[in-house]
Amino acid sequence: MSNEKPHQVYGETNSKPTITENVLQEKAETQSLIIDFEENDPGNPLNWPRSKKWTITLVVSLSVFLMPLSSSIVAPELSTIKDELNMGSSLEAVLVMSTFILTYCLGPLILGPLSEMFGRAAVLHSGNTFYLIFNLVCGFAQNKGELLASRLLAGFGGAGGLVVGAGIISDCFPKEERGWVIAIYNLGPVFGPSLGAVIGGFITQYTTWRWAFWATSIFDGVLIVLGLLVMQETYPPVILARRKAKMLKTAAPNTLLKTPYEKPDQTLGQLYRNSLLRPLQLLRVQPIVQLLAIFYAYLYGLMYLVLSTFTTLWAEKYHQLVGPASLNYLALGIGYFLGSQVCGFLADPIYRALKKKHGGNGKPEFRVVLMFPASILAPVGLLWYGWAAQAVTHWIVPDLGIALFAGAAMVLFQCTSAYLYEAFTLYAASATGAVYILRGLTGFGFPLFGPRMYQSLGYGWGTTMLALVAVIMGFPVPVILWRYERFTMSDNYGSYQTEIYGKGALMGILPGVTTDPRKLEEHARESLGVRAFNYVAGGAGEKATMDSNRLAFRQWKLIPRMMRNTPEQDVSVELFGQKYDNPLIMAPVGVQGIFHEDKETGLAEVCEEVGVPYTMSTASTSSIEDVATANKHGKRWYQLYWPRDNDVTLSLLKRAKESGFSVLVVTLDTWSLAWRPADLDNAYVPFIKGVGNQVGFSDPVFRAKFEKETGSKIEEDIIGASRAWIGDIFAGSPHSWEDLAFLRKNWDGPIVLKGIQHVDDARLALEHGCDGIVVSNHGGRQVDGAIGSLDVLPEIVDAVGDKMTVLFDSGIRTGSDVIKALCLGAKAVLVGRPVIYGLSIQGRDGARQVLQGLLADLWQNMGLSGIRRVQDCDRSQIRKVQYGGDVKAMM
């Protein structure tokens, strides 16, 4: 979970604010306050006791189990209901099951926005109560009109659990713990339909059909009572909104309180518009959504067609009593269960293997591999079932056939859902909603024609017709999905531009993070609290050095060349004897946990996927080992804030080396923090409260020394430990050039000095055995009024560029900025702020989009400038001009 976020107001489980009214009144005059969870906040569902989380999960899982059970429990009773209520045809009897399925599937489109406004618990309680009322009415219905109308409304109420179930799990459990929880949660939808039919069969044989509704109502009543006793709201936006409402009662009139999830202009009407119109829009314009929705809906319709006709088969063809006949429904349940387990066991390893094979880049089509065999087995299972039933073979034979179909269908369901979530990310809910729309219609409609079809064609030819359609639709689907990404993606970085246009034209999907570097910072400001934003966007003094960095890029101009045959560029570079896919390196940015809960581990994972080396800061909110695990097979560098204590330094170097960090980047210009007004005005340094100290707090040597000196563990004295750690890495005096011998002796990989601005310092770095330098002024964060790094780059390259690797950092915002630095002699560039802005806006997805955008911009500008290879970048393609006027307005 995320660490402390700047300028946040934290609450306890009773939602009482931890900031006084006086402080609120004082702060309200100058800035807004962000209300968010604190690290280890007991009010955060992720931090609840496991017993509490599992109890809530059990209640919602039982609710999700009850509704599919309720949909099918009437299947064995349809003929009895038809006779007792004087229904004119079997079609009307089937409507008793179909109407429930229709509203159960379409209900989420209505209830989903309500859960966003009022919370998950409210929707679950209201939905279960609504279901209880009308399900009871079903049990007392005296005519078909009463039964069908009540059944229709009961299905709508039953959708409450479907709407909130997965969300409650994601609220309460971190990603690494959700596997087993989801597996248990999914048992309900898997076994519910088949168990419902079994129970319904014995109810029909031994008592009245009305007990099907009374029994499920009793079950639901117990769930409602349990829910009221144990359920608490789990949806973070609603929890924090309630905290905000309580705090407003004691806040000064002009205080502006916000939560990170707030969208002030979003109304319930707008939520409904997104919920209803976006799925319809995707169905209208997106071929892939159309294809998947039709295929998924067809399989779902077949499932309920079988459920509605199964009893008739065993009663009329096999002459079994209703109770024993209903046991055959277990074949469906077993098939669903085995299919879900096979998919769960194989899907992730297949995805990981393909991702590794493709250089660490995961793609949605990697989720469809299991669809190839499943799309063949599903019609095979149907044919097996149909002709075995037609020939009245031993009962186990059609059961095996229908189990094969059910297992294959479950694999197809799960692969389809996984593909949608991978392909549509931000709009995955809308894409899934589009599938639900058609699913509800086929679940409603297919059982209506099933009985008449089998009466006319028999089980053999009737099922053959269904299987033929499944073949025609089924096998092409995974083939199309596997090849579809080729339309919008190719093997070069510039294809990201094509992908954006393709998704917009074909899917109606716009980028989740702006591609405009000028807007990116403003969007990050809107996403972050005041202190978090100032920490990343601020600079030293009046930000004169930051202005110099951007002015330097403005004054250096590219000189494009034409007709140079550059349709395919080579942006790879060689650094320290290793080939890198591109000249971008993620700069070391500290305390990433204050920007987004994905923090360093999420960004390290993204860097591996995109193919950009990740440089980890010593001032991280994640440990060295956790970052290495997240970065997997990616290239990673370790940035050292050099402690005064050699024992601690040795421990950090040892941990970094053992964790696969290949390059040591030593930052020279932060032995003391600069005068930063944006942070000073808020009296904000995250390290004081332990935020950004995870590297030290997880270090065995530092921990042992702290415990020996103080007699306390770090967890018992966070403030004291923070002071000790800060005092070690920001010691107040710099190391000497002679001290580099210590690092050279204890690090056997490349050593790069970051923060070089003077040509003599570059020469000294070379003399003392360093392998590279980063020409950098720390992005303007350390010395105010310093020269722009790009302006000193040519002189430094001329002095040492042929003897050591010269890298560049400070002010990179666009692909053309990268080219300018390369033309002036840098071998590669480090980029920081833009990626962190993306991280703050949309987590790892936002960071990924910014990195992909930078690489695409680089690729396009190289080609348009007539540059085919990075190695071809030189000073003949760049010229410096004088840029007059107001610097601020210019930038």
Automatic annotation (TrEMBL):
The chain crosses the membrane at residues 54-73, 93-111, 123-142, 148-169, 181-203, 209-230, 288-307, 327-347, 368-387, 393-413, 420-438, 458-482. Residues 509-883 form the FMN hydroxy acid dehydrogenase domain. Its main location: membrane. It is a multi-pass membrane protein. It is found in: Membrane. The keyword Ribonucleoprotein does not apply. Residues 11-20 have a biased composition (Polar residues). Residues 1-20 are annotated as: Disordered. Its cofactor is FMN. This is Major facilitator superfamily (MFS) profile domain-containing protein. It comes from Penicillium concentricum.
